[in-house]
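Example S7 (structure tokens).
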């Protein structure tokens, strides 16, 4: 499809409730929406980078720069055949995966509209519905967290992920597990611990969690391997896995 135009929209949306993680508290969610026009169709994408470089080095500011100055010139006025073709065009741009993903997302939207197919069909998906979970930020207290979990369960969510940080992990997680013994429950540390301080997470090993997500540094795989050897609960990598290659490293290292 020949890309006729690309438009960027920087938006800021006030959150219904503050969202707190180990690296900060958000009251507004910023992102960049991407609009691509081709063959009389419009495709939409979203760059999920936020204002601050907490979760990722990418921000709405850096994404805007990369999209405008580097990615747009590589596709504007060009025939982009599929997602793989797009990735080949931008492979000379190191990193900036969130910015790249936003354009690929818009391209998938265009391809689906052109072919009259849903994203599920384009990806070869089998199910009509999938169960969904929800991520809950750090609350003011363990009891407040339990109440928040209850509200999401009443809405139909079947899996709960709670954010944790040093000093706010054991009491909160234990309270949720006590209230809901059979709940599919997981925790996310967002790189808040070191190999030395992660011993504080050991009581979580007895709470039948689905996983403990990204306890150590955002670019680490090796120390996560060492930590996993100390836990029966699976360690989940998020920030550390930025490509299929990194996923392979982690699997081969049993991280």
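Recovered sequence:
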């Amino acid at each position: 499809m020949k890309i006729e135009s690309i438009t960027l929209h920087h938006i800021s949306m006030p959150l219904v409730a503050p969202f707190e993680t180990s690296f900060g508290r958000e009251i507004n969610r910023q992102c960049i929406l991407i609009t691509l026009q081709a063959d009389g169709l419009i495709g939409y994408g979203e760059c999920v980078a936020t204002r601050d470089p907490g979760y990722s080095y990418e921000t709405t500011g850096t994404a805007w720069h990369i999209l405008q100055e580097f990615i747009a010139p590589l596709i504007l006025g060009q025939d982009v055949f599929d997602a793989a073709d797009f990735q080949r065009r931008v492979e000379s741009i190191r990193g900036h995966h969130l910015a790249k993903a936003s354009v690929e997302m818009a391209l998938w939207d265009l391809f689906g509209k052109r072919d009259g197919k849903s994203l599920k069909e384009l990806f070869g998906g089998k199910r009509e519905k999938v169960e969904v979970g929800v991520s809950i930020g750090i609350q003011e207290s363990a009891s407040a967290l339990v109440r928040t979990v209850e509200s999401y369960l009443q809405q139909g969510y079947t899996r709960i992920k709670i954010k944790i940080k040093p000093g706010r992990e054991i009491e909160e997680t234990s309270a949720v597990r006590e209230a809901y013994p059979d709940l599919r429950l997981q925790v996310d540390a967002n790189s808040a611990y070191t190999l030395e301080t992660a011993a504080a997470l050991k009581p979580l090993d007895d709470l039948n969690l689905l996983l403990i997500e990204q306890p150590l540094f955002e670019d680490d795989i090796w120390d996560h391997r060492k930590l996993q050897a100390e836990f029966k609960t699976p360690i989940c990598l998020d920030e550390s896995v930025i490509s299929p290659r990194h996923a392979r490293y982690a699997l081969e290292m049993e991280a």
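Notes on this example. The chain has a mean pLDDT of 95.
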